[in-house]
Amino acid sequence: MKKTALITGSTSGIGLAIARCFAKAGYNIAFNGLEANGAEIAAEVGKEFGIKTSFSPANLMKPEAIQAMVAEAETFFGQIDVLVNNAGVQFVSPVEDFPIEKWDLIIGVNMSAVFHTSKAVWKGMKARGFGRIINITSAHGLRASEFKSAYVTSKHGVTGLTKVLALEGAPFGITCNAICPGYVRTPLVEGQIKDQAKAHNMTEEEVIEKVMLKKQAIKDFVSIEALGELALFLASETASELTGVSIPVDGGWTAQ
Ligand code: NAD
Questions:
Q1: For a FRET experiment, which of 53, 98, 106, 198 has its CA 20 to 30 Å from that of 90?
Q2: Is 37 in the pocket of ligand 1 (CB under 6 A)?
Q3: Where do the domains of the chain lie, and which CATH numbers do they carry?
């Protein structure tokens, strides 16, 4: 029987790349995201790789929508073997001007939703004695940068939750790990380049060179394929003793 991966925020950027990587490896995929063409994306990936897919537009700010998404996926696929908590949002501003609603949104989507999805899949994973939870955090789950109070807080929170879930999952064959990317050129980062340019009073080219890639020893954006392949390994049976860690894929940023 094919394994099933539920991947949040999988209709764009890193999540979509991870979904394609898992689809290529033969997993069925439960897609989620706010993109209007999410259902078409899910259907196309299913057709391309000959796998079963579903799409849920569940808003991760709503715990009851998360519970419904997980229940629907479990009914449709039979089970969820792998949960990839990937969805995330960003907002860049000095703390004194940081809008409260942006703080609530970032903490809600990036951090609290990881608790709600993990809680929702837990019972099934525990009953089957197998589960893989993979959190896409960030180098900002391990390091701080100015103007990113909510984002850095949310990602550090998930770094902690990853360790707790690893400990609680250990007796039941459930592992939980985090992947911490450096900068990946996705729609989220395109938005950040613009916001950072405003915050730092720089051109967009200066932001890429002097703010973003400045922190990475390797002066390149991280490839989405590297993240997909790593997630696939973490999901494998082979990685059964690899748990509770945050793995940077960040061009040497956090080596400093
Ligand atoms: P993206 O903007 O391309 O995709 C984000 C996805 O999350 C989209 O599908 C969006 O619809 C979904 N999403 C956002 N809010 C949601 C909500 N309320 N409910 C349901 N879905 C929601 O971003 P990305 O760059 O691919 O980022 C993916 C993850 O990787 C995020 O957690 C981000 O923090 C992390 N990350 C990105 C980078 C980078 O450089 N791009 C670096 C480190 C970490």
A1: 53
A2: no
A3: 4-182+222-255 (3.40.50.720), 185-221 (no CATH)
